[in-house]
Amino acid sequence: MKRILLFVSVLMLFVANSFSQVTTYSVSNKTVQQIVQQYLIGPNITLANDALHPSLFQGQSTVSSNQIGAFKNNITNLCDMPMDSGLVMTTCGYQQAQPGGYGSGASPNIGMYNMSDSTFYWTYTKYCIEEGKTATSMNTIALLTFWIKPNIDNFQFSYCFASDEYPGFVNSSFNDFFGFYFSGPYDSLGNVVQGGTAYEMQNLALVPGTQTAVMINTVNHGSYGHSQPHSNPEYHIVPTGSCTSSCGFNEYTTKLPTASTFVVADAYYKITIGICNIGDESYQSGLFLAKDMRRFDTINIDTTICENQEYYMEIADEYLTQTGKYSYTYTNLTGGDSLINIDLKVNPVAMDNYCWTLKADDSFEVDDKVINAPGTYIFKYQTWLGCDSTVVYNVEWGEETMETDCVSGIDKVNLNDKVKVYPNPAKNILYIQGVEHDALITILDVSGKQLKQIKASNENTSIDISDLQDGIYLVNVIMGDNNITRKISKQ
Questions:
Q1: What's the pLDDT tens digit per position in 272-321?
Q2: Which residue from 96, 149, 253, 430 lies 20 to 30 Å from 389 (Cα-Cα)?
Q3: Strands annotated E in 136-255
Q4: Per-residue pLDDT tens for 165-210?
């Protein structure tokens, strides 16, 4: 039996490893429009295709270079390459993106000055030479351009950058470079559309939350065996174990989102995606692009409630009751991962108790209400913070009409310490601990209406509140001459 189990375990490991590898496919002789539509464009985005808005790879409308291909990857967990499918662009042949695919070089091997889109050199200079402090020569460049017409107000897509320059050439001048550049909005004739955010070769491949371009020198676990200082390692993966053969590159970034853009619906936008070797043509790099170009929303909510209220977060089915900052991710109608940030403030609700004695045939007035009999009277006020506060008047017969201490001296301290009302919030059963025999316990709503009243039978008394609706209630306890009120929440 042990041998059989061992065999099964080895077989399962072999199958898992075989399915965790990246597999690449040729897209040669297909039009660039076809592969962009099939592998990149998501819902609510139209790929433009006319003489003024062509889809091109290496300046050609049909793929004739093996620097681009399609890929699939069934396992994206833990240290595996984190993208499941899409297009891959490389500084070599697309075959290197899969394990063992080291045999194909770039074709064609072209330099920057042979490219018609010279603005790519400007962005390279800005991000790679100036910020990355790398060598100036670019080699084996791959450049994909196409035009889109979004019918949504913003969008985002995902990518993974991988390279054989990791880890030995981190923090060196061999800082292989890529970028996702966004330009627009334009009308159908190429004129700038007014009224929207203007982009001119704006690199959207940035370290999340920064304006730093993603490059080998900006996202890594350090160099030379990872002994040197690292940069943004939370966005970098060092594959180990079975993951070392999951793709054809040494190390790679996590699945990263592009910076979200805000666009003018139905205007034209140009997308330029480029990758190149820096300094020499050795140690190749690849850019995995996912088929999830879609809308992305960031919604920031600042709101205030009172402590007897709840803020319902529908997408998480949660009730928020504490001051704090909360974040939730949800999938919107276009399939994008959107973010809701809630900054919640909970203002306090005040509650005061007043105790009076009332002489027979006498009365006193509180806010135009005449009190002429013993009982518990509830008054509601709104504080400057906008929250309803509660004032409770506990009235008993006495020799004269006057305000008294609800519990005086040491007795007040002892009573407040002694009487416990729990749990709070409560669900079905409410417990009152520390009461005396025959103590009168009354439950009232916030308007002062009496809902339940019992006499305590022992020091630990319970009341069934399962029939009460969710909300805020007052629990009034009278023990002899002493009177206290507690506020509870029923959920």
A1: 998 988 887 888 999 999 876 655 566 778 888 887 677 888 778 888 88
A2: 430
A3: 138-150, 154-155, 158-163, 177-186, 199-203, 236-237, 251-253
A4: 999 889 888 888 888 889 999 999 999 998 778 998 888 999 988 8
